[in-house]
Amino acid sequence: MVSAGVDAGMFKNPEVDFNVAMIALLVLVLSGVLAGLIPAQRAVSLKPIDALRSE
Q1: Phi-psi group of 16: left, alpha or beta (phi > 0 → left; psi -120 to 50 → alpha; rest → beta)
Q2: Total count of domains within the chain
């Protein structure tokens, strides 16, 4: 069954190439690490009293 140019077979049996899945995993892990490290580096560089004073 083909409707609106979409092959319904890809929804019945989805497949992802292993290399594509590993690259996607690597990209997601690296972006998560960066998203966690950038705020952590900023937090380490501040003195606690200065951080509390600015609030």
Answers
A1: beta
A2: 1
Burial label for 11, CB within 10 Å (0-12, 13-18, 19+), is: exposed
Tokens of 43: 């937090």
**Alpha helix (H) ranges present in 1-55?**
9-12, 18-45, 48-53
Q: Is residue 5 part of a domain?
A: no
Residue 25 vs residue 4, higher pLDDT? 25
pTM above 0.70, yes or no: no
Residue 20 counted as domain residue: yes
Answer yes or no: is 42 within a domain. yes
| Residue indicated by tokens 């019945």 | 12
